[in-house]
Amino acid sequence: LFAIALFFFCFHTESLVLWPQNKALGNPRIYTDIREGGFSTAEFFESDSAIAMRATLNSGLYHPHAGIEFPLAQGFEALSLEGLDFSHMDSVAITFRSNADIALVLYTADPVASKVGDALSLRPVRLDIPATRHYTEHREGLSKARTNKLWFDIRGVEPDSLLHLDHVVQVAVETGRGSLLGLPTEIEIEKLEFLGTNDQILRLSLCILMFVTGIYIWGTIKVHGKGYQIHGLNSSYIHYTQMNSLSIDYCYHQLP
């Protein structure tokens, strides 16, 4: 049982690291509200230890913004709405520093509104994270993430609480609350990782536990059952011997 517990605690969690760069996924890149008709600008910086963006938000759009996006596929797969399954991920760990709050955005494929090749049709599931001027790790539960309300109005979709985390097409870190128009907003990311439970290991551990428990119960019944049978035979033998002795005594006293 100790070995099963050790196996479970060593392998029951899994993670997906987006930065430092995951070679199996697409290359990070910056984006701004220019693709939506805005006027914000951004510069992209990358080193061995961190990825950074310096953005200047400008008015002219209902929601000026800029960010760094992390595609979850490469080549033609990046155009697909299949994405990756984040439904078993329960939290995110991000180490960053910034002069304003940031927002973690999971762009998911909405079965009604999302269209292949149209990044703006993806559902933006947003999680606000407070600013820190020094590198600090923040751990946030994905259960707090919500779809950006503006998206419902723009796409003409009835508001709901669905997230569609089973089809995450890309992840982004963008400017959040406190970003001032016309002034630089800097975001530097040292690590970005999603954490969750490995369902396969959980099921395997439960199966092994049930199997071992079954063997233990079977062995216990086997051993104690055999002991009971032996004890029963010994009792019968003693009873038979006593009865036989009494019979002999009785017969002896009946002799002339």
How does this model look, in words?
The longest helix has 56 residues, at 199-254. The model is unreliable at 228-256 (pLDDT under 50). With 256 residues, the chain is of the alpha+beta class. The chain is elongated and about 85 Å long. The termini are far apart. It has helices at residues 2-11, 149-155, 199-254; strands at residues 13-19, 29-32, 41-46, 51-56, 66-71, 89-98, 102-108, 123-129, 136-141, 146-147, 168-175, 184-197.
List the helices and strands and how they pair.
Elements (H helix, E strand, L loop, with lengths): L1 H10 L1 E7 L9 E4 L8 E6 L4 E6 L9 E6 L17 E10 L3 E7 L14 E7 L6 E6 L4 E2 L1 H7 L12 E8 L8 E14 L1 H56 L2
Antiparallel strand pairs: 1-12, 2-5, 3-4, 4-12, 5-11, 6-9, 6-12, 7-8, 7-11, 8-10
Helix pairs in contact: 1-3
Strand-residue proportion: 25-35%
Average pLDDT level:
82
Structural class: alpha+beta
Helix percent band: 25-40%
Key features?
six-stranded antiparallel β-sheet; 256 residues; 3 helices; disordered C terminus; single chain; 12 strands
What's the quick description here?
With 256 residues, the protein is of the alpha+beta class.
